[in-house]
Amino acid sequence: MIVAEVNFDGLIGPTHNYAGLSLGNKASTAHAGAPSYPRQAALQGLKKMKCLMDLGLTQGVFLPPLRPVTSLLHYLGYKGNDKEILTKAALEDRPLFNTLCSASAMWAANAATVIAASDSGDGRIHFITANLSTMLHRSLEAETTCQQLNRIFSDSCYFAVHRALPYGQHFSDEGAANHMRLTPSHKESGLNIFVYGEKGSGPYPERQNRRASQAVARLSSLPFDKNYFIPQKAEAIAKGAFHNDVVAVANEYVLLAHAEAFEDQDVWLDRMAQHVEGFIPLIIDSISLEQAIKSYLFNSQIVTLPDNQMAIILPREVKADPAVWQVVETIIKGNNPISQAIVVDVHESMANGGGPACLRLRVPLSKKALAAVDQRYILNEERWGQLCCLVEEFWPERLLPDDLINPDLWKTAVKAHWALINWLG
C-alpha cells in the first residue's frame, strides 16, 4: 500500500477583499480597507497548485462557496429577494454585510482536521469539519465545507466525514491549522499533535479549544498513545500567531518550529523524539516571533517528493528579511531531508494573513483511497488550465471596500459560481 499526501487547495473566490474581520490576525488588520485584487489572488493560488503538480505531486482543489451569503439574512428576519435584503443589510449593518462577503474559505487548512487511516480506530480517513466559531464570518463556512467534503470523500469504505462540533467558544475548532502529524513515513502510524490556546492568556481570542481537539481525537477513535495536546505559547498568540501553523509545521518525521511556539517546548520535543523514529526537530531561535509572523516562514509547506527528498514551499515575503532568508539557506544546507526551497507568490493571501500552508488541506491517501476520491476535484494540466481561464473571465480585477455593496459585483459572483459548477460537471 503506497500512501502519499495530497494537498487540496482552496480556490480564492471572486469577493476576495480586505475587510479586517479577523481579530488577532495582524496582517488582516493592517490591510483593512485596502484595495484587493481577486483575479490576481486566485491566479496566484492556482500557480502555487501548479508548482506542486510540476514537482510530481497529486494536487486537489476545493471550490469557494457562493458569496455574498444570504441565508443568514433570511435567518435574521430580512424579507425580500436576495438583492433587496443585501441592499438593506449594506445600509443598516455594514460590518454584518462585510461578513457575508468574506472569501475566507480560501484557507483550506481551516476546513477540517484530517486523521490518517493508519492512525484512526477503524482504518478510514476521518475528516472532522471545523466549526470556526470564534469568528462569525468564518463560522458561516462550516455547513458548505461539510457538504463539499461529503461530495469529494463520499466512499464510506475509505472516508468518514463528520459535521462540525457544537458552536461556541467551549468547542471552538479551527481545523488542521492547529494539528500536526509526525510519522516515519506517510504510510505508517503516526503521532497526532493538537495545539490549543490557554483560555484568557492574552489580548486575542484563543481560537482552538483543548476540548475541541479532544473531541476530534474521540470522533476518529485515536488510540490514547497517538495523541499529544500541547498548549501554544501565549506570547506567540499575543504577537499574532493566531494559529499554530504560523509558528510550526511538520512533515513526516521533520518538525520546523520557532523556539517560542509551545509552552514547555523542550519537554514536548523530548516526548516527540521518544515516540517518532528518526525525528528531526528544526527549532529556530535566530529570528524573533515578530519576524516569523511577518514573513510567515513557518506557514510554509514541507512536502515529500517522489524521490523521498523534501521541499519547502515558501512565500516570497521570506526574502524581504535577510535574517529569515538566512534561516532558509541554513535549513537547505543542513543535515536534514529538505533539499530545496521553492518561493511562491501568494501576496494577496498573505495580506489577509494566509501563507502557502493556510491555502491547503493535507490528506494522506493510499492508491485505492485516491481512486475513491471524486476525481473532478483532482487537477491535471487541462483542468488546471480551465480554472485559470474561468478566473480570467469572471473574477474582478480590483475591489475597494465600497465595491462590495455594488449589485453588479453580486451578479458577477453568481456567474463565477455557476461557471465553477459547470466546470465541475
UniProtKB/TrEMBL annotation:
Listed PANTHER family: N-SUCCINYLARGININE DIHYDROLASE (PTHR30420:SF2)
Residues involved in substrate binding: 19-28, 110, 137-138, 207, 245, 352
Active site: E174, H243, C358
InterPro entries assigned: AstB_sf, SuccinylArg_d-Hdrlase_AstB
One Pfam family per UniProt: AstB
Subunit organization: Homodimer.
Its EC number(s): 3.5.3.23
Any GO BP: L-arginine catabolic process to succinate
Keywords from the UniProt entry: Arginine metabolism, Hydrolase
HAMAP family: AstB
Protein name as annotated: N-succinylarginine dihydrolase
Pathways involved: Amino-acid degradation; L-arginine degradation via AST pathway; L-glutamate and succinate from L-arginine: step 2/5
Gene behind this protein: astB
Annotated function: Catalyzes the hydrolysis of N(2)-succinylarginine into N(2)-succinylornithine, ammonia and CO(2).
Reaction(s) catalysed (UniProt annotation): N(2)-succinyl-L-arginine + 2 H2O + 2 H(+) = N(2)-succinyl-L-ornithine + 2 NH4(+) + CO2
